[in-house]
Amino acid sequence: MTAGMKKVVILGATSGIALEVERQLACRGCELLLVARSAQRLAELRSDLMARGAQQVLTCAANLASIQQHASVFEFTCHNFYDFDTVLLAYGSMHEQKDSERSIDVLVEELQINFVSASAILTLFGADLERRRTGCLAAITSVAGDRGRRSNYVYGSAKGALSLFLQGLRSRLHPAGVRVITIKPGPVQTPMTDHLPNAARFADPEQVGRDIVDALERRSPDVLYTPKIWRYVMAAVQQIPETIFKRLSF
Ligand SMILES: NC(=O)c1ccc[n+]([C@@H]2O[C@H](COP(=O)([O-])OP(=O)(O)OC[C@H]3O[C@@H](n4cnc5c(N)ncnc54)[C@H](OP(=O)(O)O)[C@@H]3O)[C@@H](O)[C@H]2O)c1
């Protein structure tokens, strides 16, 4: 087991990327608290992770997109898993961009799930780690948040806002010795993307899970691009002048 990471809270434990992280943490003998919407899927996950070597797996069924439910998730955590040292936020949704253009309700829901509720629950857990002057807070945003594109700027802007939020939170929590990691995956093969063209060419979630576990264990980096090539791809994409970028149809 890793010295600095023993008790890990996963917010959005049923995500395809989170599943890979959980399997690897279970093999390391970590204790896990899993939060997701479906009690049945959580129970199945618990059995699987215990069989893989997790020392303890607690579950808490909640819809994290609803800020009203955050207080009870936090209370459950403080009561049953009070000395957690790591929090990974992994839930999110990616609606069809066209649906967000046609419906303000869909647009607001996309921002609510990916940014508003995420920043709210990170504030709750972050304050606890800050008070205890320990631990690590990590959240999955996306490379889509690095530049607004025609084909997915609503999802991208929510992820971009979350990345900016994490940057500020990192600075706030730094004096307390709390690490904040921004995780920016490129396209990954998960249920979120399996309907997209070329999905078979997307990154293997096992590799992405490994990169995330490595980042949680090590002292660096503050911002993880996974797979690593996306750091260079996005650095190049950010250099394209706006006059050209606005004409690109992707
Ligand atoms: N896959 C990619 O290419 C990719 C790339 C960059 C970033 N990401 C980000 O990585 C994270 C994990 O995504 P994934 O690829 O692992 O996707 P996934 O397998 O589709 O998982 C999505 C997770 O979000 C939860 N969720 C979805 N809609 C929700 C809602 N309305 N309310 C509450 N929870 C909801 C799901 O819970 P249920 O199981 O209850 O549905 C599930 O736990 C997300 O933040 C995603 O934006 C993914």
Question: What does the model show?
Answer:
The chain is of the alpha/beta class. It has one domain: Rossmann fold (3-Layer(aba) Sandwich). The chain contains nine helices and seven strands; from the N terminus they run βαβαβαβααβαβαβαα. It has a seven-stranded parallel sheet with strand order 3-2-1-4-5-6-7, sandwiched between helices. The termini are far apart. Bound molecules: NADP nicotinamide-adenine-dinucleotide phosphate (NAP). NADP nicotinamide-adenine-dinucleotide phosphate binds at residues 12, 14-17, 36-38, 63-65, 90-94, 113, 140, 142, 185, 187-188, 190-193.
Topology:
Elements: E1 7-11, H1 16-27, E2 31-36, H2 39-51, E3 56-61, H3 70-80, E4 86-89, H4 97-102, H5 104-132, E5 136-140, H6 153-173, E6 179-185, H7 205-217, E7 223-226, H8 229-239, H9 242-245
Helix pairs in contact: 1-7, 5-6
This protein binds NADP nicotinamide-adenine-dinucleotide phosphate (NAP).
In short, what is this structure?
48% of the residues lie in helices and 15% in strands. With 250 residues, the chain is α/β, with parallel strands linked by helices. A seven-stranded parallel beta sheet has the order 3-2-1-4-5-6-7, with helices on both faces.
What descriptors fit this protein?
250 residues; alpha/beta; Rossmann fold; seven-stranded parallel sheet; 9 helices; 48% helix; binds NADP nicotinamide-adenine-dinucleotide phosphate
